[in-house]
Amino acid sequence: MAFSEHLAQTSPFPLGIEIARAEGCYIFDTSGKRYLDLISGIAVTNIGHRHPHVIERIYSQLDLYLHVIPFGEFSQAPQNKLADKLASLLPDSLNCSYFVNSGTEANEAALKLAKRATGRHEIVAMKRSYHGGTHGSLSVSGNEVKKQQFRPFVPGTTFIDFNDASQLRHINKKTAAVIVEPVQGDAGVRIPDADYLKILREKCTEVGALLIFDEIQTGMGRTGSLFAFEQFNVVPDILTLAKAFGGGMPIGAFISSKKLMDLLTHDPILGHITTFGGHPVCCAAALANLEVLTEKESWLAGVHDKGKLFVQLLQHDRIKEIRQIGLMMAVELNTPEEVDRVIENLLEAGIIGFYFLSTRNAFRLAPPLCITTDEIKWACERIIEALDEL
Ligand code: PMP
Q1: 295 Cβ partners below 8 Å, 6+ apart?
Q2: Could you give all domains of the chain from N- to C-terminal order, each with its CATH number?
């Protein structure tokens, strides 16, 4: 279905629901049909659609100013307050934020910072990872299907298997950075062993390589803590955020120490530049989003139990495995066709589920963190019915 002759498409079979509005955990189409959103715009609307606190802050900022100058020149209160809030929530070594427009841009900039800081250019990345659709991020993504038509890529990247400590020998004194999702998202929710990220951290420290955690999908409470790294007790040198960071508005960040970040001010000056990064309306929304998660609502505390409730209720002989951490879940079936049919059946029943980029045998569940236990029970009954229909 083409939405418009003039609107670019990314797939020959888009879901194509005609959106009228969205509120909390629900999306409404133009016919008035209501859908329970079990994917949060792919891990974006963690606090639900249009949280009133976010909307209020957006309106307030609209009345003051929109874009005034590219990032880093003028002092803008929404950027300053957001950076201060992040510094108060993160370890001291992650006390300096640079705001960008998207996840892929955050990763691009993180890779540049690692090269600038180490004077090295080699990157170690993980097989089956996804870090974004632009050239640099795609170069360090381990998704062959998405890459093969777009070669050549940035040279100097070595791919290793995620969660295999024996392969960490490939990280050496030539490595500028290791980029990793603490829990792999588009690979179908791959959760590392308890000590893997710790051993990885030690190896990076030993050889002087920077450790980049891409928490673009795992951040903002998705895995049950504000950032996934808190659960693994490992602090990266650079942290990248996007998706749910803006509470529904487009904003990303790469975050490191003030000492490292200051390298972008000289040799060359303007070491990373962006016109719209840190847009004041997006920063106001992102701060409101963090306030919702850490001060106004207690949803974060319930994420682990809600995730477990999904796993407990989703018992069906078509389900081969459920990989779950917090409210980040992959439900593995037997074939891609089964996945397609379940997603179609769920849409009929008023539920939005979705695919993974590179794991065709599984569908994703990543509901807003504010989903209630009654909604989870209702959704799981519909999912079981959808599986029964196969
Ligand atoms: N990193 C991860 C882990 C992601 O899941 C994604 C998006 N799926 C990205 C980076 C890219 O983010 P964006 O689409 O905002 O560029």
Answers
A1: none
A2: 19-50+298-388 (3.90.1150.10), 53-296 (3.40.640.10)
